[in-house]
Structures are given as structure tokens and as C-alpha cells.
Design goal:
48% of the residues are buried. It is built from 33 helices and 22 strands. It is found in: Cytoplasm.
Length: 820
């Protein structure tokens, strides 16, 4: 008897209207029936939610169509696993990519609502921190733009990293409450829920005449539940999915304990589960923090892989074609435990033999490395890893045995080389090397700039590169021009369209036509007017938030990025102190008015980074209140750096600070955003600065300092910072002023340790590069005093940055790694 229901032809809804009057009517309908408000009493946040729901409906039509096409055509899917997705606000992004900006503005205006006002109320999604997360967001938008079917997988953080406030110049970390009033962009997918285990034991089953099977019996289990956010590509050609995992306990409350009076203990399972998705990068200076980080990484990796394999089996009978239909990209080492988890799922759950599972795993995964810093290549203490993931520890040892035997027999590796490629670091306490696991378990390993990729081959992965010489390749990072030009700088976008037409909107490299206008006096005047208006907006923001008055006619010199010693905010601050001394000592000279603006967050447990923030604020307090400076120099640290703040600061920058120690910045993407928006770059030959110089022209970028090779050689020869300081009058005076308490009269010794580190160690080569940096800044001053030369260079920066689009990067990933 056939009980199946007959196939039903489901009618597809007609495309929704884009006419302003229809949009306005729908906004009122959503306001009334979804939010429960009369238009007469609706508040701005009510209008925002109603508008988002109307926009979202138009996204859903395209989202479902994109999903159907993948199933019907059997396209290969790309899965991007990242611990961060710094997507920022979505309203302007979605409306712009749908091509609805003018229509929605008109619709809201007819209701007496200003689009810009309500769009500014949308909270930034607290799903990331720095360049890693912003790159993932750009990549997701570009994958949809270039028609690559893709899912992004991450964690739905309740509080993100933290909300940064200043208390007497010190960073204070507060919870980021972006989800306090819900998120109208997302959809809960209760049907996409998976059990995630921790701890417990592994049992071996099977008779004497059959191969053993391994059964992991976790001691703890939580549920991962999916929340989906649509990601709209340019012109809405495709809508992809950002799937984020939230954690729930299997037993939310232990009623017996609660009724017995143990109200706190009764909720311990709930609290333990919720801790997994509370905070991005919990401090790992203690064992509890380390364990929580590893739990987070395994939690989202396991949920993602279970979801991927389930989806694959919905279309195909087995996993033999998984590498042909699935590409999984690991964004740094955070999801590297996925290699072990994929092996566990294929062998223990789905019954594949180890060698077959290994071939499928390696054919499916690829890994992006973002750092040459050893401490950033994650590793976990073996006892912690084994206690938390006992089956995965067995799999890691099995993979390690396979690789080490291969290296010894096929490549005749020495003991030293064997130690270098091993998944277990035997130096000191034994640790599991996640970078090595990601490398060995992937068919492709890419760097994110040409310099970074070359250095990978001779530094952190030199021996693995010898073992697998065809795996490392380069994919220089890019940025989405929709967010980082069209949306954040509409006035410049309009000016460019007026000059060269609309082709660049779809092909960023068409910006090169703007070169013809670089020396055109009339165009320069318009370009300068756009820049000044952007500076006025930033000055207004700084004034309203911080009470500091900025002169838009001054040079806006901006460094915005995560606070880290290798990024050398300290070099910038020390040079500001030296410049302060020079302005006071030589008032007769024609100094260029300059505002040095900083923004960025320091990791809560990173003492020196937090001290650098305090120093910036202390230096700002002294300089900004000294009448002898005559307003020629101001220093401002703008708190709580996020995507929305960057969207104001980037278009306003005259000078972009990209001054990391050469050989330590993998790529950078802030450098690309600034240059695209018409800022001159001052920087070292580090990361993508090298390729930017090649594209914009050496005459249109200000380069200083040691190269990566010279940095390595200086360290090898025994860098002597004290001798360098003694030979540099400006540097020694600036360091002495900071160390002696000139900027910290309330605590004269506050910065003594920070400055002692420069005198005695200076790993980040501040002293070696200081004089060259100061001289480069004076070169910038000279260019600034000739506006025709300045705008010629900055216009050429905008014109020649088209290659650094994330669309180009994604096309390279698709053709050379994913085969998608």
C-alpha cells in the first residue's frame, strides 16, 4: 500500500514591488501587525524593525531561489568556517545590494521617517574583533556577489568581544548587548540542532575476526542550534547563508536540585552551555579560559560538520564524492579541530575505513593562515585536549603516525625535521599543534599576501613545505567595494560615477579610468571637497562623543586596528611625543596642523596593549591642553572601535598608518580601505603594503623602515636598541619624557616598564625604525603643503586599488582551491 501523498506543485510568490508607495504600505502593515504599534506612537526603533522586515521579505525571495538552484544544478558548495564574522550593520548593506536605496528612502520619507536616522540605530553585530572577522564578512558578501553557493559557519555570540569604554584613559571592558532586543535579520532553525559532546571515554567494540570500531561516550552533552542570516550579494544575484550556532543545555534545569533549595546548582548545566556562546575569545591566561576556548572551537566545528554531512547525504548516497561537492575553508587555526572531527564522523559514525576517510578529509579541507607569530598558531596542552576530546586525541595520534612514517620513509626526514612537522610539540609540556593539523589535513594552504606566503615557506611551515611542496599558495586579501566605498563614502562614489561612468560598480578594476583625472584641477577640487565633508562628519562624531574639537583643515592621520605591539601603535605615539617637543622648541617653523587619531581594542589579558591605550590617552591629555602647541597637533583615542566607526573614520583619513614590524603583518585590509577612499599610506614593506606599492606606484605611497629580511638579520645579529637610542636625540628625549612621568604625573613610574622593554629588548624594532619613520612623516608634511601633488597621489590611490577587491580574491579561491 502506498501511503505517500501525491506531489503538489507549490506556487511561487510573485516578485515584490519596489515602488515607494508599496514599500510604505508594507512598512505600515509590519508596524501594525508584526510590532503592534500605531504609526502615530511608533518610535524610531519601531520604524527600523518594520523597515528591516520589509527589506527582509525581498531578500527571502532571492534566498530561496538561490537555495533551489544549488539543489537543482548539483553545484559544489563552499563552507567557510570562522570564529569571527565582523559583519557590522546590515540595513544599508542589504538595501544597497538589492538596489532599493532610493525607493526605500522615498517610502520612509513619505511616512515622515529619515532613513539615515533609523539606520544609525541598528546595533553592530558583535560577532568579531579585527581583520580576521572583517575579512570573513567581506568574503561572504563577495561569494554571493560572484555567484558561489556558500555557507558561513560561526558562533552566535551574545556579547561578542566587549564594549570598550575609557575610565581615566584606561580601557574598561563591558558586555556588548547587541542581541538585547532581538535580531530581525536572523531565523532560528530548530530542525538544525545537533548534540555536541565533551569528555568521557572511548570504548572499542568488534569481534576477533572484524576490525575494531570506536565509540566515544561523552560525559557532557550540549545542543547546538542554528540561526541563519541571509547574506546578499551585489545586485542580489545570489543570497547565501551565514549560519551561527547557539548553545543550549539538554537539561535546562535540574528540578530536583532546584526544589531542594540548590537554586544555583540547578542551573549549572544551563550556565555551562550558555558560556560557550557568551564571549568571543575568553581570556586564556588561566586553565579555565583555555578550556572554554577549546570547547568553543570544537562546539562550532562539530555542529558545522554534522550539518554539512547531513546536507550532503540528502542529495547523495555516500561520501565518495564529498570533495567534488563540498569545499571547507578553515579561516585560521580556530576551526582546525574540524580535521579530527571529520575523521571521527566518517569513521566512527558513518563506518568508513581510516585511509578512505583521510583521503576524503584532505580532499575537502583547505586552510588559510593569517599569522607568522608562533603564539598565534594555536596549540593545546595534551592533557587538556585528551580530557576534553579523548577520541580526537586518538585520531590525532593516528594521523601523526601516518605522516611521520611517510616523512621518514619517503623523504628521509631528519629527527629535527620530524620534530618540526609532528602534530605533538615535545618541547617542554606536550601540546597539540593546531597549525600543523590544519596544514596536514588540507589539500591547500594559502597565505594572504605575496610576502606572507613566501615567509610561510621558510619560517613556520618550512619543513611541512618540504614534505608537501605543492600545497602552499597565495591569495592576497581584498575588501568588498560595496561596503568600503559605495556605502561608507557615497559622495566619493557619486563623484567617480560623474567622472568615469558606472562600470566600476560591477568591476572595481574599472576605477583605473580615474587616473586620467588625477592632475585635473577641477576634479581635484571636487575630490578635496568630498574629503573635507567626510572629515567634518568625523569631527562632529569625535566632538559629540568625546568633547574634543577637531579642525577639518588639519591633516587627519589615522591608525585604526587591533592594539598589538607588532602593529606598533607605540611607534606612532612616541613619534607624536617627539613632534610635540619639536613644535614647542621651534615655533618659528611652518608646522603642518595634524590630528593623530587612534582606535582599537586590546585583549583583556594583554597588559602592554592596554598600557599603550593608556599612554595614548595620557599623551593626548597633555598635548591637547598645551597652549604652546597652538592647535598644531592633537591626539585622540576614539573608544569602542567597530565597523560602524570605521565607516566614518576611513573616508575621513588623509594619512593611513600601516607601520607594523616588517614580516609580522600577514596582509592587512585596513590599508586597502583607506587607499581606496583616497588616503595616502605611510607604511613598512609588510603584508599587502608590498603589493599596494606595486599597484599604486612607489611615488604614491610613503615607505620607510627595515624590510622583513633586514628585521630577521638584525635579530640574528643581536639587535642593540640602547645604542640606537643613544644616537637619536629625538627618540631618546621622547622615551625619557614618557618613562620619567611627564605624561603621567599622577604615577611617574606608570610607563617605566614599557619603555624599559624598548631599551632592553625591542623585539618589534621600534628603535630601529624610529628615525626613518620620523623622516617619512616630514616627507608627508612636504607633500601636504603642495595640494596639487597631494591630491594627485591620493586620487591615484583610489584609481589603482581596484585589484584589491575581495571579488578578485574569491574568484581566485574558487578557481584555484575550491574548484567551485
Amino acid at each position: 500500500m502506498n501511503n505517500s501523498l501525491p506531489a503538489v506543485e507549490i506556487p511561487q510568490p510573485s516578485p515584490r514591488s519596489t515602488r515607494p508607495e508599496i514599500l510604505a504600505a508594507e512598512i505600515i502593515e509590519r508596524l501594525t501587525y508584526r510590532i503592534g504599534k500605531d504609526a502615530k506612537v511608533a518610535k524610531p526603533h519601531d520604524w527600523l524593525t518594520a523597515a528591516i522586515l520589509v527589506v527582509r521579505d525581498r531578500i527571502i525571495d532571492r534566498w530561496m531561489d538561490s537555495t533551489r538552484r544549488v539543489y537543482e544544478q548539483g553545484d559544489k558548495r563552499v563552507y567557510y568556517l570562522s570564529l569571527e564574522f565582523l559583519i557590522g550593520r546590515l540595513m544599508r548593506d542589504a538595501v544597497s545590494n538589492l538596489g532599493l536605496m532610493n525607493e526605500l528612502r522615498d517610502a520612509l520619507a513619505s511616512l515622515g521617517v529619515d532613513f539615515d536616522v533609523i539606520a544609525g540605530l541598528e546595533p553592530d553585530a558583535a560577532l568579531g574583533n579585527g581583520g580576521l572577522g572583517r575579512l570573513a564578512a567581506c568574503f561572504m558578501e563577495s561569494m554571493a556577489t560572484v555567484d558561489i553557493p556558500a555557507y558561513g559557519y560561526g558562533i552566535r555570540y551574545v556579547h561578542g568581544l566587549f564594549r570598550q569604554q575609557m575610565a581615566d584613559g584606561w580601557q574598561v571592558e563591558l558586555p556588548e548587548t547587541w542581541l538585547a532586543h532581538g535580531n530581525p535579520w536572523e531565523f532560528e532553525r530548530r530542525e538544525s540542532s545537533y548534540e555536541i559532546g565533551f569528555g568521557g571515554s572511548v570504548e572499542t567494540i568488534g569481534g576477533y575476526d572484524e576490525p575494531p570500531r570506536y565509540v566515544w561516550k561523552p560525559a557532557e552533552r550540549v545542543i547546538a542550534t542554528a540561526y541563519d542570516t541571509p547574506v546578499v550579494g551585489w545586485r542580489a544575484q545570489r543570497v547565501n547563508t551565514l549560519r551561527l550556532w547557539s548553545a543550549q543545555p539538554i537539561d535546562p534545569i535540574l528540578l530536583d536540585a532546584f526544589n531542594a533549595g540548590d537554586h544555583i546548582g540547578a542551573l549549572r548545566e544551563s550556565n555551562k552551555a550558555e558560556a560557550l556562546t557568551r564571549v568571543l575569545y575568553p581570556a586564556d591566561a588561566n586553565p579555565a579560559g583555555q578550556e572554554l576556548r577549546l570547547r568553543q572551537e570544537y562546539f562550532f566545528s562539530s555542529a558545522s560538520l554534522q550539518d554539512i554531512l547531513r546536507r550532503h547525504l540528502q542529495q547523495y548516497p555516500d561520501f565518495s564524492n564529498l570533495p567534488d561537492k563540498v569545499a571547507i575553508q578553515l579561516n585560521d587555526t580556530h576551526p582546525a579541530v574540524s580535521i579530527g572531527e571529520m575523521m571521527r564522523l566518517l569513521t566512527d559514525v558513518h563506518g568508513l575505513e581510516f585511509d578512505e576517510a583521510w583521503e576524503i578529509t584532505r580532499g575537502t579541507f583547505s586552510y588559510t593562515n593569517h599569522t607568522l607569530l608562533p603564539e598565534a598558531l594555536e596549540s593545546w596542552p595534551v592533557p587538556l585536549f585528551e580530557r576534553l576530546l579523548p577520541r580526537h586525541m586518538q585520531i590525532v595520534y593516528a594521523i601523526n603516525a601516518k605522516i611521520l612514517v611517510e616523512a621518514r620513509k619517503a623523504k628521509n626526514f631528519s629527527d629535527q625535521q620530524i620534530r618540526a612537522i609532528s602534530l605533538i610539540d615535545e618541547n617542554g609540556d606536550r601540546r597539540v599543534r593546531m597549525g600543523n593539523l590544519a596544514f596536514i589535513g588540507s589539500h591547500s594552504i594559502n597565505g594572504v599576501s605575496a610576502l606572507h606566503t613566501d615567509l610561510m615557506k621558510v619560517t613556520v611551515f618550512s619543513d611541512l613545505h618540504t614534505l608537501y611542496p605543492d600545497r602552499i599558495n597565495n591569495k592576497t586579501n581584498g575588501i568588498t567595494p560595496r561596503r568600503w566605498l559605495m556605502q561608507c563614502n557615497p559622495a566619493l562614489t557619486s563623484l567617480i560615477r560623474e567622472a568615469i561612468g558606472d562600470k566600476f560598480l560591477d568591476d572595481t578594476e574599472a576605477l583605473h579610468a580615474l587616473d586620467a583625472f588625477a592632475d585635473d584641477a577641477a576634479f581635484q577640487e571636487k575630490f578635496a571637497a568630498v574629503k573635507r565633508e567626510n572629515k567634518v562628519q568625523l569631527a562632529h562624531l569625535v566632538g559629540s562623543r568625546m568633547g574634543v574639537r577637531l579642525d577639518p583643515s588639519a591633516m587627519f592621520d589615522i591608525q585604526i586596528k587591533r592594539i598589538h605591539e607588532y602593529k606598533r601603535q607605540l611607534l606612532n605615539i612616541v613619534e607624536a611625543v617627539a613632534l610635540y617637543d619639536q613644535i614647542r622648541s621651534h615655533p618659528e617653523l611652518d608646522w603642518v596642523p595634524r590630528v593623530k587619531l587612534f582606535a582599537g581594542k586590546a585583549a583583556p589579558s594583554y597588559h602592554n596593549a592596554k598600557l599603550i591605550i593608556k599612554l595614548a590617552n595620557d599623551v593626548a591629555r597633555v598635548i591637547n591642553n598645551d597652549p604652546a602647541v597652538r592647535g598644531l597637533l592633537k591626539v585622540v583615542f576614539v573608544p569602542n572601535y567597530n565597523v560602524s566607526l570605521a565607516e566614518v573614520m576611513v573616508p575621513a583619513a588623509d594619512l593611513s598608518e600601516q607601520i607594523s614590524t616588517a614580516g609580522m603583518e600577514a596582509s592587512g585590509t585596513g590599508n586597502m580601505k583607506f587607499a581606496l577612499n583616497g588616503a595616502l599610506t605611510i607604511g613598512t614593506l609588510d603584508g599587502a603594503n608590498v603589493e599596494m606599492r606595486d599597484h599604486v606606484g612607489a611615488e604614491n605611497i610613503v615607505i620607510f623602515g627595515l624590510t622583513a629580511e633586514e628585521v630577521a638579520q638584525a635579530r640574528a645579529d643581536g639587535h642593540e636598541p640602547r645604542a640606537i637610542i643613544e644616537k637619536s636625540k629625538e627618540l631618546s628625549q621622547a622615551l625619557d619624557a614618557i618613562a620619567s612621568g611627564v605624561f603621567s604625573p599622577d604615577d611617574r613610574s606608570r610607563f617605566t616598564g614599557l619603555i624599559d622593554g624598548i631599551y632592553n629588548h625591542d623585539w618589534f624594532m621600534l628603535t630601529a625604525d624610529f628615525d626613518a619613520y620620523a623622516a617619512a612623516q616630514r616627507t608627508v608634511d612636504q607633500i601636504w603643503t603642495n595640494p596639487k601633488s597631494w591630491y594627485s597621489k591620493t586620487i591615484r590611490n583610489t584609481a589603482r586599488m581596484g585589484w584589491f577587491s575581495s571579488d578578485r580574491t574569491i574568484r581566485q579561491y574558487a578557481s584555484e582551491i575550491w574548484r567551485a
